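Appendix B. One record, verbatim.
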Amino acid sequence: MEILNKADIGVFGGSGFYSFLSDIEEVSLDTPYGKPSDSVFIGKIGNHRVAFMPRHGRNHSIPPHLVNFRANVWAMKHLGCKRVISPCAAGSLQKEVKPGDFVICDQFVDWTDGRKTTFFEGPVVQHPSPADTYCPELRKLAVSTARELGINVHDGGTVVVINGPRFSTKAESAFFTNQGWQVINMTAFPEAYLVKELNMCPLNISLITDYDAGLVGDVPPVSHEAVLEVFNNNVENLKSLLFKMIEKIPSELNNCECKNSTNIQDI
């Protein structure tokens, strides 16, 4: 894979995260896995060149089960990214994780079906460990930055990833809650795992928008409109966290082993 060295940090997020930056470069890419969700928009934050891509497309036209995750992640690697931050709207499965809170997840559970989840489909076959997918150093930095900003943040949590676009039934939601999992989302897998396969550092930032089917919060079941309302009310917090955190990311994360996850020379 040719590395273009146009950016060193990737962010999967919407236009609100980069629209006010100056000197934005729009880059359109093709990949061996098809077209990504959209162009990549590259701008500067602090000492970093940051590549933003809206994972659902700039008009939110791609549902979660049809996102081309492999093309999106390959594009970030091709541009030179070493770290990829994945903010997302998510539901809560536990009463203490409230709408408006942030969760910096440290584990995922894959409850999806039919997605392309690896770059290693042969003839090159590897089995990179997902035991601790998320970068511990980026997680630590995200938590400390959120606390500096006065954001209610949870250090660690398990996100269960469902296929979408439908939300959970009450029976499904109760099952997930009873497992002790904290967060539910439709895009966290395989995105972070694919990032790890390409030796980049993955980070999940879950912005809690609802109580899923409403059981633990004793509220009505989640609706798309309710998700958007809470997300939009908290997008400034998310933007502040992203930009302040990115400014603080060092050029090297000395104790991070993400860059050694796989041998990707032949992908």
